[in-house]
Design a protein that fits this description.
- This protein has helices at about 5-15, 90-105, 120-140, 150-160, 165-175, 185-200, and strands at about 45-55, 60-65, 75-80, 110-115, 145-150.
- By secondary structure, it is of the alpha/beta class.
- It has a single domain (about 5-10, about 45-200), classed as Ribonuclease H-like superfamily/Ribonuclease H (Nucleotidyltransferase, domain 5, 2-Layer Sandwich), CATH 3.30.420.
- The longest helix is centred in the middle third of the chain and has 20 residues, at about 120-140.
């Protein structure tokens, strides 16, 4: 069977096609007197993931449910929009409140967040870091495990190309979930982070 990336394996699993169960370690990988081992097959993620794409004025949130042998289901999504005239403190409070509202009573298993991309402007980096902190604190206070993923890794896991455009990302996210409505860019990014987590997570 040809080598498959994570996205292809997930699509094959949903279609009922054969999927590689394990990857064998080459015989020459074992040291003297050691036996070659095979990696255990990765169990598909099951449960709800809250994906977060943090931004001071437009944080994306997407709650997705994953189950065995079926498409991921988008349960709820939102863009936390905060007008520019509002203070930074107000915006951080809105992000915190929105994350708490998504987590309350939703039986969320994990929270997946997009890491801050490299920016040359120190002030921009500081603002993005504050937005991430507000979202992360809300999840931490709810005692939810938090996982972070670089944007490049998210695109590789979901689209199969690390340089995919936001439009490609949104189309792929909607196709994977069989979702008819076009998602806002920040919501699509948040959903992408959640999908990345489920596709690559190992217990």
């Amino acid at each position: 069977m040809a080598r498959m990336n994570v996205r292809q394996m997930w699509a094959a699993k949903l279609a009922g096609k054969p999927v590689p169960a394990a990857l064998a370690v080459p015989k020459n990988a074992a040291g003297p007197g050691q036996q070659s081992l095979a990696l255990k097959p990765r169990a598909a993620f099951s449960g709800r993931v809250l994906g977060i794409d943090p931004s001071l004025r437009g944080t994306g949130l997407a709650l997705i449910e994953f189950g065995p042998s079926r498409q991921p289901v988008l349960l709820r999504c939102q863009t936390v929009r905060v007008p520019a005239k509002k203070t930074m403190a107000f915006a951080l409070g809105e992000i915190h409140r929105a994350v708490v509202a998504f987590l309350d009573g939703a039986e969320v298993r994990h929270v997946a967040m997009e890491q801050t991309i490299f920016v040359q402007n120190f002030q921009t980096a500081q603002i993005l870091g504050a937005a991430r902190g507000a979202a992360m604190a809300a999840a931490a206070l709810q005692e939810r495990p938090i996982f972070e993923y670089a944007p490049l890794r998210v695109k590789q896991a979901v689209v199969g190309a690390g340089r995919a455009s936001k439009e490609q990302m949104a189309r792929t996210v909607m196709a994977l979930m069989g979702h008819g409505r076009t998602l806002a860019p920040d919501e699509a990014d948040a959903a992408g982070v959640a999908l990345c987590h489920a596709f690559t997570w190992r217990e």
